[in-house]
Amino acid sequence: MLNLSGKNALVTGIANSRSIAWGIAQQLHAAGANIGITYLPDEKGKMERKVEELVAPLNPSIYLPLNVQDDAQIDRTFAEVGEKWGRVDILIHCLAFANKEDLSGDFSKTSRAGFAQALDISTYSLNRLAGAAKPLMTQGGSIITLTYLGGVKVIPNYNVMGIAKAGLEMSVRYLAAEFGSQNVRVNGISAGPIRTLASSAVGGILDMIHHVEEVAPLRRTVTQTEVGNTAAFLASDLASGITGQIIYVDAGYETVGM
């Protein structure tokens, strides 16, 4: 029943094979979606080559650089997407960053520059990309972002990223209200802790994973594939009545009090 054939899906945020974005891209492809990939460019082109090799089995029809702190590049990327595809049906936002020193220690000592950068990349980028995609989402569609429990609860060594995720989750609701009139749904997936390149910056990530495995109702953490399955569902017509929601994919951990 889950069929994304004929849908154009643009996926951001793949860094390596552990990326949640990679799990999502694989499941969208398995459901029949036409995949487009963006990567974070660097001076030596290392990330371009690395991600290109990884995503080759998905046969992406679009492969473009995207630095969300560069408005001109965002505009160029979506102009090329428009020329190539004509429309976007699915936008996957898997982007977050904070300086490591702003994730630990006293939250009150977060630097002004670090605070601004974390919210720019991790929160505002959803708003900016959604706005750029909006004219191309002419046949309805789905926008999906990734969040974490640290946006609603205090998590050790998360600090400024918790503020960024809180803003991201509220952005989901405001964007859902704005985009609903053109039948575009906006939702977030709050995934349990998974060992990724991004999560490796969070101190004690392995302890967090082990804790979830001990106390979550399913007595385990989740996988990139499970998050990808949920994203594919939210992108499909099976989720046609769901928007403005944060869906927890965390083996039930969010429900546990102690």
TrEMBL record:
It catalyses: a 2,3-saturated acyl-[ACP] + NAD(+) = a (2E)-enoyl-[ACP] + NADH + H(+). This is Enoyl-[acyl-carrier-protein] reductase [NADH]. Keywords: Fatty acid biosynthesis, Fatty acid metabolism, Lipid biosynthesis, Lipid metabolism, NAD, Oxidoreductase. Homotetramer. NAD(+) binds at residues 13, 19-20, 95, 165, 194-198. GO terms for molecular function: enoyl-[acyl-carrier-protein] reductase (NADH) activity; NADP binding. It is an enzyme of class 1 (oxidoreductase). Pathway: Lipid metabolism; fatty acid biosynthesis. Substrate binds at residue 98. PANTHER family: ENOYL-[ACYL-CARRIER-PROTEIN] REDUCTASE, ENOYL-[ACYL-CARRIER-PROTEIN] REDUCTASE [NADH], CHLOROPLASTIC. Belongs to the short-chain dehydrogenases/reductases (SDR) family. FabI subfamily. The active site is at 148 (proton acceptor), 158 (proton acceptor). Pfam families: adh_short_C2. Its EC number is 1.3.1.9. One of its GO terms (biological process) is fatty acid biosynthetic process. It comes from the Bacteria.
